């Protein structure tokens, strides 16, 4: 391990080999072992209806819990999982685990028919054989209505193998699985392609949402994205809502849903369960 070798470890590399490559390699090995040992878990972050102020669903967000109970966030390993293709295996687990969790909540009488769980699906997973079948099988295995399950894709997907991707997305839609476009505005999506895709929800990336500004001009971009979504008959979700000012402004602009630390952080399954229980009592 580079660190243990101390200060001189750089001597082991020639100029074309950077230590970072060794780190990546180590991380890949650790990731493979984590898959074998099933060290992943899902957190759930509420998505809130801005108009009514109630929870309408959750986004599932993967975490890697290492032996020592260290929690590693997806930003640290998903990019490498994508490059190495390990995301295919992790992604399959994520799909099935989200379904298992919904079923558990349903069996325990905590689920409401209008709720859903969003699952992030990487572009790479669409080039895997049988992604749609994997989703169908998980839904069937856990006896779930497809409307409980939503898929989040990113704009990058729109620039890939168009026919194949559109075909799979249409299959999912026909099945009754809703599709969301995630981090909207940060990637390279062409607006003409946005229309080609059977997407029903647009998630505005949090980088577009001003933190404290009440200045009208700072909100113009958000306003146009909300209107774009609505003109394409999509529901619009704002990501990263952290302040009351943001909540109020988004509501004023007609944004449908919000997700962010203001409402709740991504929750461990027990905490999400507790929230569902509270929701149940209120209903
Ligand atoms: P994302 O899909 O855009 O998920 C939203 C991210 O924003 C989450 O980070 C969430 O914790 C964070 N977030 C939510 N509210 C706030 C807020 O108010 N302020 C701030 N600053 N951040 C907020 P997280 O959980 O670290 O996930 C990062 C990214 O990793 C996700 O971005 C997604 O692209 C990817 N990811 C997570 N889980 C999965 C998965 O199961 N499969 C795949 N393929 N990617 C995943
Ligand atoms: Mg997402
Ligand atoms: Mg997002
Ligand atoms: Mg994001």
Automatic annotation (TrEMBL):
<feature type="domain" description="EAL">
    <location>
        <begin position="24"/>
        <end position="280"/>
    </location>
</feature>
<protein>
    <submittedName>
        <fullName>EAL domain-containing protein</fullName>
    </submittedName>
</protein>
